[in-house]
Amino acid sequence: MSEDTLQTTGAAVHRWRWAGLAALLTAEAMNLLDTTIVQVAGLAVHTDLGGRVAAIQWFTAAYTLVFALLLIGGGRLGDRHGRRRIFRLGVAGFGLASLACALAPSAGVLIGLRAVQGAFAAAVIPQTFGLIRAMFSGSELPKALGCIGPVMGLAAVCGPVLGGVLTQAASWRWVFLVNVPLTLAVLAVAPLLPEDRAPSRPRLDPVGTALALTGSGLVVYPLVQGTWDAFLIAAGLVVLALFGLHQRRSARAGRRPLVEPSLFTGRGFPAALATSVLFFAAMNGLMLAVVLYVQLGLGRDTITSALTLLPWSAAMGAASWITGAHLVPRFGARVMHAGLAVMLAGVLAAIWAFHAHDGYPPPLPAALALAGLGVGLFTTPFFTTALKPVKAHETGSAAGLLNAVQQFGGTLGVAVIGSVYQNVARHAAPAAAVQHAFWPAAVLLAGAALAAVPLRAGLER
Description:
Shape: globular
Distance between the termini: 41 Å
Largest sheet: none
Order of helices and strands: HHHHHHHHHHHHHHHHHH
């Protein structure tokens, strides 16, 4: 069957929707997998390629920062040129960048290639939501969207374990090569996707993109480096303020800004963005802190750090599936706050475990499982609630922006919590360092619970 037929024949699109969904979810999983798998392998990469210890954080942050800042522009490309077309180009570029990462000769080259990888991922991920909406309708649409949470859970389970096994058994380079067969599988199924684009072709906003990229980079760079340079952070905040002014002027002038202003007419979507930043900062920062503690603090290998994170990931995957299949249909958005409370309880239990034991604390896996359970309880109702009321012309902007703040939050979490650990570890025992690193995560989760309050009644527009 030709691609043109698939674009114009509703029955054909309907027929292949589940195969298309599998390709989209695989691409989503590749993105999450590429974050978690590298966190576990980061120390092995540093040992092999050399460079400053801060490079360990940059192996993750270079990817997530560029990914976050280009996501909105990636959504606009799909709106303008067709979501299937941009999706396929992005997946192909992501696979090639992954292959290049596996061949990187130095830490600096790898960090640069991770940024390229993040740029291609930014072209892929915003298209998934729009393509799902193009393939599904009615009662099937929430079911399709509800599959995102379990797939994220599965990727979270596989990432740390796979990273540890591949690094220990072969080489850290294999953590990037694993993307190559996944890329080929997605590209093989991608022709079954329908072509889809916005009703009107929006203009791109290179000035807005440059302002967002520059401002966020100025804020994040000193945090990742551990310098906390007040001048750079202040300059970044000024540039981000200019970005906001630029977006408002573009809207008043009748141009399509990078971010659709209609998304901010109610409290719901801004609350979703704030919640996403705080929650994913806590989640990503916690995972990095555990890896740094096990590998740098205790001197254990990658397998140990992977197995330490396994209860977190397994609980997250199981909770995501149960939440999407049973809890959300019955209790709705209330499950979000239950998830945050459970995750906070797990974080506090881990802090107690670190306080009570100088070496590897035996209660730690149970505490991390409790935290992972909270992650799974939170993510499925959060994404379903946040994206449900989005209108057709807002799809690219909303999907890109929500994913962008998620990744930006994750980058901030890696920067702040990772820097706290490394700064304290210079003059204190590893257990004390990881305790200090976990407390900011607890504060972030409390903030996420407050920010999510408007979502309890749905996103009021």
